[in-house]
Design brief:
Helix 1 crosses helix 2. With 260 residues, the chain is α/β, with parallel strands linked by helices. It has 8 helices and 10 strands. Strand 9, helix 7 and strand 10 form a beta-alpha-beta unit. The protein starts with a strand and ends in an 8-residue tail after the last helix. Strands 1-10-9-6-2-3-5 form a 7-stranded parallel sheet. The chain has a 3-stranded antiparallel sheet with strand order 4-8-7. Helices cover 32% and strands 16% of the residues. It is globular.
């Protein structure tokens, strides 16, 4: 893991955007794994700026989103397809035909999940997967105790996750109980993983994921086993890392050839 501690979410997001931009310029047909929620919004704003001001070209790229709520159609205000359209896709030139998001209205969830996995494989696999982390360590919607080898499937949300996501809905009672999510095994097959975490409420989960044991109780901890993981943190989310000063020193003293 490479731990990148910055002063604020905007700076962390700019660092993550630089990595993705370098990937896309080197590989114009890059396959991007994308996330939703509040955390990646500053990253998407920076990618939009790079597209408009620096000519960052998404026309050859393909995207796969992590998850979607079961029972929500694309036009629902809280659907992740709607979120992605409003926060990224409407402002870049990623072709609609190469945008993939789980279908919350599918009538055959197991078949749809199998097809989603097949589409990822047929695309050549995900080059860079963007993640957030829940306050309990979940990634995607892989809640604590999820299998560390899991694939795309239906999951039942914990009450904690439903409460954390209630601000996207009219009330907590409106938050669906079920989602379709990429599995942890699916995420681990991405060639690179970029995890963003901001705020004091993420500090325990981050510390457990980076410095704790590998355990299904903190699903993000499996990323310790991935060869190419970058964590982009602000000071608050990094506050409980025992070795944070060392992580800063490592990042500040990287050799030039390792810098994107």
């Amino acid at each position: 893991m490479e731990i990148i501690i910055t002063s604020d979410p905007a700076t962390a997001s700019q660092e993550a955007a630089r990595f993705l931009a370098a990937l896309i310029r080197k590989k114009p047909v890059a396959v991007l794994g994308l996330a939703t929620g509040s955390t990646p919004v500053p990253l998407y704003r920076e990618l939009i700026r790079m597209h408009r001001e620096e000519g960052l070209d998404f026309s050859g790229c393909t995207s796969f989103n992590l998850d979607e709520y079961v029972g929500l159609g694309a036009d629902h205000p809280a659907s992740y397809r709607r979120f992605m359209q409003e926060n990224l896709f409407s402002s870049i030139n990623l072709p609609a035909a190469r945008i993939h998001i789980p279908d919350g209205l599918t009538q055959d969830i197991p078949a749809h999940c199998a097809a989603y996995e097949k589409s990822i494989a047929e695309s050549g696999g995900i080059d860079a997967q963007v993640l957030g982390i829940g306050s309990d360590g979940h990634v995607g919607f892989n809640e604590p105790t999820s299998s560390l080898a899991s694939r795309t499937r239906i999951k039942t949300l914990t009450q904690r996750t439903r409460s954390d996501n209630a601000h996207f809905f009219a009330s907590e009672n409106d938050v669906p109980h079920h989602v379709i999510t990429m599995g942890i095994g699916t995420i681990m097959e991405a060639r690179a993983v970029l995890l963003l975490a901001f705020g004091e409420n993420k500090a325990d989960a981050v510390a457990g994921a980076v410095e704790g044991p590998i355990t299904a109780s903190n699903p993000a901890s499996i990323l310790q086993m991935h060869p190419t993981v970058k964590l982009y943190l602000d000071e608050k989310s990094a506050s409980k890392l025992a070795r944070r000063d060392y992580y800063r020193w490592v990042f500040e003293n990287k050799p030039d050839w390792q810098r994107d």
